[in-house]
Amino acid sequence: MVKPPKPVAKGRDFLSNLDLSPAEYRAVLDTAHAMKRGEFKGLKPLEGQTLAMIFEKPSLRTRTTFEVAMNQLGGHAIHLTNAEIGLGTREPVRDIALNLERWVDAIMARVYLHSTLEELARYSSKPVINGLSDLLHPVQLLADYQTIEEHFGQTKGLRVTYIGDGNNMANAHIQCAVLSGVKLTVATPRGYEPNAVIYMEALRLGADVTLTHDPVAAVEGAQVLYTDVWVSMGQEAEASQRRKIKDFAGFQVTPETLERIDPDGIFLHCLPAHYGEEVVEEATLHRKSRVFDQAENRLHAQKALLYHLLG
């Protein structure tokens, strides 16, 4: 049995990918790969520890993978819906944090507003993990880059293209460009660009990121093509949805799109997919698709993250 590495981020919050240094990011992904290979199987480094999981938004992958991850590491997870705890309504976010920190070892929250996570982290002495917010989805990016490394071996200089809405996924990709060394292109319709502060900070930190409104040029020759839904949870108003579908004409990923990426390229989507909008079913089932490998890696990447925060 291989001895696990020393935890690199013990006791810290993980609200964004840039909460890890490049070396710490490398350690987490190396651990994720090792865990997937079964190298630490049978070890229970989080025995006796409990993760509180707060969900304002519904979840398949985030809930299942965090709960299974804690179980496999010897710990326990508690599922808390917003109907039960009422973040900021039934009780202030501050009071929820001050209660939970006395009972559990970490908090994972999947929320609408990033400011909710920041408030949880401000008042909790225990680590707070961003399971998704309107600004960022950092745990997803760990799984994404584990998947990319499985296919390509390394990421420095790799041509990664994200097309679609400049949402939390686009923002998280921009942050990961700092850590991974990829050449990232983000293609969005006009008016749907990613967060300007996150983009400028990434450039300041040396990331190679290009913003464009031309999806055709962005896709051509890409080694990794990534998309996400055009209408996120909480933005499903009918008028908004109709307007977005019109604005995003030309951004849909089809099998024909995938024939234009690098011959050895791969396609990723964080799921759930809105088939007929940003992607068609044939693309997720295409020979270049690694969408379900990517979903599987949510488990391994989050196990590694939990280990390095709590181990």
Give a verbal description of the structure:
The protein is α/β, with parallel strands linked by helices and 311 residues long. Helix content is 41%, strand content 14%. The protein has 13 helices and nine strands. The chain has helices spanning 22-36, 61-72, 82-85, 93-100, 114-123, 138-152, 168-180, 196-204, 215-219, 238-247, 255-258, 281-284, 291-310, and strands at residues 50-55, 76-81, 106-110, 128-132, 159-163, 183-187, 208-212, 224-227, 266-269. The strands form two sheets. The protein has a five-stranded parallel beta sheet. Helix 2 (61-72) links the parallel strand 1 and strand 2 (76-81). Helix 7 packs parallel to helix 8. It starts with 21 loop residues before the first helix and ends with a helix.
